[in-house]
Design a protein that fits this description.
With 330 residues, the protein is an alpha/beta fold. Helices cover 28% and strands 22% of the residues. Strand 12, helix 4 (174-188) and strand 13 (193-194) form a beta-alpha-beta unit. This is TIR domain-containing protein. It comes from Amycolatopsis rhizosphaerae.
């Protein structure tokens, strides 16, 4: 038997909906519950390990919106086991919606509001908390929220994003970067590697494209030569200390979004000193490095990439899958 409950004004609720529509029904007091209810019930794909996988089509054009109630709402709370599909609005007169315990996120609750019984302005959007689910930021947020539920976003969700981002300073190491780019593309494919000027297209928003790719890749290779942290502008200011330095911004973006960043030390130089690095990239000094000789040739770079694939399984897996598709022997 349903009981009546009150949802007070200024309650924060979450809703997943197509981008073209405003936030509406159904809703949940919890982000995770709203995501599970909207994305999983009729589109679940299970891996042998028991993971639930979200496919690209399920996220395309979807938005996670936050709203606040502007007035008190009266809802009917359904008892566990009660078939909500069998409850019609006319069965619960005087209420503005239904509330029940989520089957996917027990014991949290979710609710459905009857649109024709609610004032038009009963839900006030909170844009700063909302997010698209089909871009790099949205996928990152979704992955973090649903990781405890053994849900992941399929690799295909990254369509259009490369696997590897090459980060480097043009003052030193440019030839080695070109060779790295060439070798990685040979093994992984042209679209799998992002290198600024080669990957940017006419008309691209330079900043948006660089940052989207820096946070969306699996691996960033940060090539660090002798002048990497000793390059200065015309006034004598160190580039690395400036917020607009793109080498620094790319690394900071990758670190902030959980990308695997691998420092590639070029030639004979000392390791990075964390005290000499800006706070947003200080973590770089503690990461395990790879070493590449200065004036490296193709064989030197091939050996480094061999080692990279040995130590970063996601790249080795991508390489093996590409070889299998092309019919090449292991």
């Amino acid at each position: 038997m349903a009981t009546r409950q009150v949802i007070p004004p200024d309650s924060l609720l979450w809703h997943v909906h197509p981008q073209a529509e405003s936030a509406a029904l159904p809703l949940s007091p919890h982000e995770e519950t709203a995501l599970l209810e909207a994305l999983l019930p009729d589109s679940r794909v299970f891996t042998p390990a028991g993971l639930r996988v979200l496919t690209p089509a399920r996220l395309e054009g979807r938005v996670l919106s936050a709203v606040r109630t502007t007035s008190e709402l009266l809802v009917a709370h359904l008892e566990p086991g009660e078939d909500r599909a069998a409850v019609a609005p006319d069965d619960v007169p005087g209420v503005q919606g239904l509330r029940w315990t989520s089957d996917l996120d027990f014991p949290r609750e979710t609710l459905l509001l009857f649109r024709d019984r609610c004032p038009a302005d009963v839900l006030r959007p909170v844009p700063r908390l909302s997010a698209r689910l089909d871009d790099a930021d949205g996928v990152h947020r979704l992955t973090q929220l649903l990781a405890p539920y053994r849900v992941r976003v399929a690799e295909a969700e990254r369509a259009g994003l490369p696997l590897v981002f090459l980060n480097y300073r043009t003052a030193g190491g440019t030839l080695e970067v070109f060779l790295l780019d060439e070798e990685l593309r040979r093994r992984l494919g042209d679209d799998a590697v992002f290198r600024d000027h080669r990957s940017l297209r006419a008309g691209d928003d330079f900043a948006e494209v660089l940052l989207r790719n820096a946070r969306g890749v699996k691996v960033m290779l940060s090539v660090i030569g002798a002048r990497w942290d000793a390059s200065y502008d015309e006034r004598g200011g160190r580039l690395l200390d400036q917020g607009g330095d793109w080498v620094r911004r790319e690394i900071a973006e990758a670190l902030a979004h959980g990308v695997c960043v691998v420092p590639v030390i070029l030639g004979v130089r000392s390791r990075l000193d964390p005290d000499e690095l800006p706070a947003d990239i200080r973590k770089l000094a503690g990461l395990q490095t790879l070493q590449l000789v200065e004036r490296a040739d193709r064989q030197d770079v091939a050996r480094l990439v061999d080692k990279l694939f040995d130590e970063v399984p996601v790249l080795a897996k991508a390489h093996a899958e590409r070889r299998a598709v092309r019919g090449e022997s292991p």
